[in-house]
Amino acid sequence: MITVADDPRIQLAHDVLGAVEIVPDSLLPPRVVRVIDADGDHFIAKQHDEHDRYARELHAYRTWGTHLDGHAPKLVGRHDATRTLLLTALAGDRADTVAPGSPKEELAHHEAGRVLGKLHCATSMPQGGAVGAVLAERLQSWIDLAVHADLLNTAELSLLSHHAAILDNSLMDSAVCHLDYQPRNWLAGDAFGICDFEHMRRDARIRDFARLEFRRWQAAPHLRTAFLAGYGSPLSDTELRLLESFGAIEAATALVKGHKENDLTLSTHGRTVLSRLT
User: Fold this and answer.
1) Cα 240 to chain center, whole Å?
2) Is the dihedral of CA 93, 46, 179, 268 positive or negative?
3) What's the predicted TM-score (pTM) here?
């Protein structure tokens, strides 16, 4: 049996479950660990670096997890002082490990659309201007950071500012959104699962499609078709135009974070998305 006495994740698991063993899992990020209890059940212990993300993820599991029953982990323990959560582990393979172009990949996107549709339907609110104004302000803050780091030329600055103005003057449906909805946070098994709720909050409903659109679907439109078939409703022309403005947020965020973290892959992604915007 492996124990790490000074690790708050293992301590929380021990306090809640009793004796546990660590299960090596190379796909998990460093702040997350998988453990198994004496009955052979698997759990995930996760420690947050930031209090805000810890509080947001805790709130998500306690408030909105009921809308994802059977498709999301369950909260079984927490330790506020160390920002640590203990969750049930879902069975299945991470969807980003599925072979590209395979029927299993297409099925994962269909199921991802179906489960997200359940969450959005249960938490939707009609069109309003407040969400657009908040998103415009958020995009402008990323633009300001990009300008400060000298990452944009005059034409690129004008393009991103144009999309900020579009968002500021747009009405859009809101819903509780995952906001990092992509295959690395999906589990394809007997039951489709989603995880990682640290970004979850009320936002523009179709913003949950943005990362998929600009990281997956443009190169594989059949996956968009499968997802929307599961989701249950197509995107209107207005929503498609708004999705492009969400791409502006994706581009600006990737450029700034890529520069700050010296991440060439992220910076290249930001440049690619920016080049696709009109």
Assistant:
1) 20
2) negative
3) 0.89
